Amino acid sequence: MHFRRAGAARTIARMQTYLYPDRISLAALDLVERPDPAPGPHDVVLEMRAASINYRDVAIARGDYGAFAAPLVPLSDGAGVVVARGSAVTRFSVGDLVCPVYVPDWIAGSLQEGFARRRLGGPLDGVLAERVRVHEADAVKAPAHLDAVEAATLPIAAVTVWQTLFADDGVRPGDVVAVQGTGGVSLFTVQLARAAGCRVLVVTRSAERHAELERLGADVLDANGDWRARLLALTHGRGVDRFVDVLGDVARLVPLVRVGGTIAIVGFVETTHTTLDLPATIRRGITLRAQSAGSRASFEALVRTLEVTKLRPKIDRVLPFERARDAWPALERGRPFGKVVIAIGGSR
Ligand SMILES: NC(=O)c1ccc[n+]([C@@H]2O[C@H](COP(=O)([O-])OP(=O)(O)OC[C@H]3O[C@@H](n4cnc5c(N)ncnc54)[C@H](OP(=O)(O)O)[C@@H]3O)[C@@H](O)[C@H]2O)c1
Fold first, then answer.
1. Picking from 110-114, 281-285, 316-320, which range would have the lowest pLDDT averaged per residue?
2. Cβ count within 10 A of residue 94
C-alpha cells in the first residue's frame, strides 16, 4: 500500500504490523502502520505470508514469560517471500520462501552464553507484520514441498523437537520415545520420531484424538487412566528411552525412563517448578536434558528431513490477518490439534 505523507514530496511505502505499543498484553495489541523496511547490505526483506503462534506467545501476553519492553511486534514463527535483498546477500534470491530463525545468534553447535538473549517475538520484534527485514544469516529457506502456512509452523516447535531428538546424543531407530499432549511440540515429536524409526507413545487427555494419533503412527496412552502402568507394560517394565516432557512432570517421569535413558525438559504447561527424587534419578542414571529451542544448523537439518520424508506439519486452523488476535485464545483455550496459523496477505 502507498500513501503520501503530509509535507513529504515523495511517496512512502507503508505496511501494517501488529504491535504491543506501550505494554505487553493481548488487550493492548494493536494493528498499526509503519514504513516499509529497507534492506541493509546483508538483509532481505520478506513479504510475510504466514505466522504461527506458540505457547510462549500466550505466556508472554499473560506476563508469565519474563518482562519484555514495549513497543514489541509479537510472534516468533513465520514464513515470507523475499521481495528485496541487499547488495551483499548471497544466501537467498528474490522469490525464495524463507523462515526467520527464532534465536538469531545460534548458528550451530550447542547453546552458548549470550545466544538466548536475542529471540524473535520478545525481546526482538517478531513476525506478525506484512513485511519484515532480516539479516540473511538469520533465516532459512523453507522446505520445497511446504506452502507458507505450513512453513510458518517450523521455527520454534519443530526445530526444538529436531534438536531434542537428534542433536548431540540423539535417538536411534528402535528407541521408544514418549511425549504428553497433542500440541505443536507433541505432534512434531510424533512425526519426527516415527520418521527416524522410533516407537512413539503419546499421553493425551483427549479421547477423541486417539484415532488420529494412531494414524500418525503413535501408540496412545489415556491420561485419564493408569497410563504409567500401561507405559511400563508396553516397554516390558524397562521404560522409554527418551521422554519429551512438555508439561513439567519431570519428577514423576524418572521411574518411566529406562536406566541410562533421557528426560528432555522442554516445557512447563502444567508447572514451572518441581522437586526431584535425587537418589532414584542417580540410581537409574537418568540424563536430564533441558532444551531451549535449536540452532540454525538444526533448522536446516530439519528442512532436509522434511524434504526427504515429505512430512507436513499438522495445522489446526488458519486465521486471517485481520483476526490475528483470535490466535491467542485459540491456542490457550481452543485445544487445537496441530498449529494455529495466521495467513498474511491472503496466502490461504
Ligand atoms: N524449550 C523449548 O525450546 C520449547 C520450544 C517450544 C515449546 N516449548 C514449551 O513446550 C510446551 C508445549 O508447547 P506447545 O507449543 O506444544 O503447547 P500447546 O500447543 O499448547 O500444547 C500443549 C499440550 O499439552 C497437553 N496438556 C496436558 N495438560 C494440559 C493442561 N493442564 N493445560 C493445557 N494443555 C495440557 C494438551 O494436549 P492434550 O489435550 O492432548 O492432553 C496440549 O495440546 C510449552 O511449555 C512451551 O513453552 C519449549
1. 110-114
2. 12
Which are the contacts of 230, defined by CB distance < 8 A and separation ≥ 6?
A: 221, 222
Ligand 1 atom with the shortest distance to the CA of 265: 1
Contact 165, 196 (CB under 8 A): yes
Cβ atoms 81, 98 nearer than 8 A: yes
| Cell 506458540, located at residue | 54
**What is the 9 CA–ligand 1 centroid distance (Å)?**
51
> Is-contact 284 251, C-beta < 8 A?
no
Residue 49: strand, helix, or coil: strand
Residue 125, CA atoms < 13 Å, CB-side half-sphere: 14
CB-neighbour burial class of residue 198 (10 A; exposed 0-12, middle 13-18, buried 19+):
buried
Cα distances (Å, whole numbers) of residue 57 to 66, 120, 163, 331? 11, 10, 20, 10
> Ligand 1: does its nearest atom lie under 6 Å from the Cβ of 157?
yes
Q: Say if CB 222 and CB 195 are below 8 A apart.
A: no
Q: What single DSSP character describes residue 174?
A: T
Ligand 1 pocket member 331 (CB < 6 A): yes
Peptide bond before residue 71 is cis, with ω within 30 degrees of 0: yes
Distance between CA atoms of residues 244 and 266, nearest Å: 7
Nearest CA to ligand 1 atom 6: 157
Q: Global pTM? A: 0.94
What does the block give as the cell for 102?
A: 527464532
Residue 45 sits at φ, ψ, to 5 deg, of -105, 125
189 lines ligand 1 (CB under 6 A): no
Would you say the CB of residue 205 lies under 6 angstroms from ligand 1?
yes
Pairing of β 11-19 and β 30-35: antiparallel
pLDDT in tens, 220-249: 999 999 999 999 999 999 999 999 999 999
pLDDT tens string 162-219: 999 999 889 999 999 999 999 999 999 999 999 999 999 999 999 999 999 999 999 9
Pairing relationship of beta strands 131-135 and 97-100 according to DSSP bridges:
unpaired
